[in-house]
């Protein structure tokens, strides 16, 4: 009887704020649970895409040598010699990409009958390593994973806002969960229950601890991944975050970088070599990857992107434009293409969003953290549903067994 009175009195002491928070946590969690599980689970898989590709795409890698790379013109010539053996004489080079030592170089071509080819070559010898016309099995798998993570395998216009809305609900659920988790009294027992998982307890108690305790330890990491993911669903959220971080308005209006047509064309026999040499001189070979987009019209400019680090990080990059007739450097055409070192702290953080979201910002340690955050995030709807189910129907079933 005394126990019942204590329970009733403790419930009566709950504030309306806490009651509303607990109600929101329960019902928002139940309504968004399936979507949150899919998004988090597929996000955990997506973290390891480069590690999987390292073992499945052997043509990506070559033995590093202590000699310079072949210039683009020679690699194009080797590719076209290969095409002749395939009875292909009409091709258009669209882009090429060099990597740091140890990686092959990639050339992309448009071919007749609307075909496209991605040619992998040894940058030291020009040997053709792979002619890829279709997605590999690993590529298709990760495209499938990404489609689930971003759109729930629905059309983008439908799936993207659904995922974004579920992520916003998940943020509210985590905040209200913290309020629910917060002990009303900081007694020794309450502290132990709030910060310790009873691994030897029965499965129902263990499930509660996994939801509450592990959820508490992971909440900051899961929040960071969730908030950074909302960027990709809602433009208003992206622009709002940019304004908060930088006190500026995000403008993505693109102004095409135009070459000077008053100068006679064809001044350079191999303009892609000139671009390549200029980039090598500017960055002194210190790059992770360099991509060069070949202009398809006489008025367009060469667009190049230099990525630093291992070449997979997107935030630390430099975009350069070159007039295809004069080879003079042209200014960036978009706000976010400014050199990374010239950005303010808020702009740098904003540009890091994708790398933070995918866990690759600091390499393997943050990938591991992102993976476990995703798995824990995926487990929260499951453990929460089990808690709700046991509290709603578990007691009544137990009473029925006891009466029988």
Describe this protein's structure.
- The chain has 404 residues and is an alpha+beta fold.
- It folds into 3 domains: 15-50 and 146-249 and 363-403; 58-135, Nuclear Transport Factor 2, Chain: A; 254-333, no CATH class.
- It contains 13 helices and 8 strands.
- The protein has helices at 2-12, 16-46, 49-56, 72-85, 137-151, 156-181, 188-195, 203-230, 235-246, 271-283, 345-351, 353-357, 364-403, and strands at residues 92-99, 105-111, 115-121, 128-132, 289-293, 302-307, 317-322, 329-330.
- It has an 8-stranded antiparallel beta sheet, covered by helices on one side.
- Helix 8 packs across helix 13.
- The chain is elongated.
- The protein starts with a helix and ends with a helix.
- 24% of the residues are buried.
């Amino acid at each position: 009887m005394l126990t019942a009175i204590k329970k009733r009195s403790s419930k009566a002491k709950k504030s309306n704020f806490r009651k509303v928070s607990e109600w929101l946590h329960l019902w928002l969690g139940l309504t968004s649970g399936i979507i949150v599980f899919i998004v988090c689970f597929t996000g955990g898989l997506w973290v390891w895409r480069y590690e999987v590709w390292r073992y499945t795409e052997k043509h990506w890698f070559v033995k590093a040598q202590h000699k310079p790379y072949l210039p683009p013109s020679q690699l194009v010539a080797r590719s076209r010699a290969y095409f002749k053996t395939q009875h292909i004489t009409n091709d258009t080079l669209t882009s090429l990409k060099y990597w740091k030592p140890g990686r092959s170089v990639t050339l992309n071509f448009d071919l007749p009958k609307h075909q496209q080819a991605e040619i992998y070559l040894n940058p030291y010898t020009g040997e053709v390593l792979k002619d890829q016309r279709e997605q590999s099995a690993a590529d298709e798998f990760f495209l499938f994973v990404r489609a689930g993570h971003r759109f729930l395998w629905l059309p983008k216009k439908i799936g993207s806002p659904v995922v974004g809305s579920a992520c916003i609900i998940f943020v509210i659920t985590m905040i209200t969960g913290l309020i629910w988790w917060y002990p009303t009294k900081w007694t020794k027992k309450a502290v132990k229950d709030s910060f310790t998982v009873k691994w030897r307890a029965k499965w129902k108690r263990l499930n509660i601890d996994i939801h509450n305790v592990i959820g508490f330890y992971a909440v900051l990491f899961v929040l960071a991944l969730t908030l950074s993911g909302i960027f990709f669903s809602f433009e208003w959220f992206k622009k709002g975050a940019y304004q908060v971080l930088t006190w500026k308005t995000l403008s993505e209006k693109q102004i095409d970088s135009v070459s000077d047509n008053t100068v006679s064309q064809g001044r350079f026999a191999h303009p892609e070599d000139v671009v390549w040499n200029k980039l090598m001189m500017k960055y002194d070979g210190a790059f992770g990857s360099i991509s060069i987009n070949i202009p398809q019209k006489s008025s367009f400019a060469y667009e190049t992107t230099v990525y630093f680090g291992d070449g997979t990080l997107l935030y630390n990059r430099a975009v350069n434009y070159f007039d295809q007739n004069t080879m003079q450097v042209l200014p960036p055409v978009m706000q976010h293409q400014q050199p990374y070192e010239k950005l303010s702290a808020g702009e740098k953080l904003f540009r890091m969003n994708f790398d933070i979201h995918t866990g690759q910002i600091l390499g393997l340690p943050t990938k591991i953290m992102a993976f476990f955050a995703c798995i824990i995030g995926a487990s929260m709807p499951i453990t929460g549903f089990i808690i709700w189910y046991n509290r709603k129907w578990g007691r009544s079933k137990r009473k029925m067994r006891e009466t029988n």
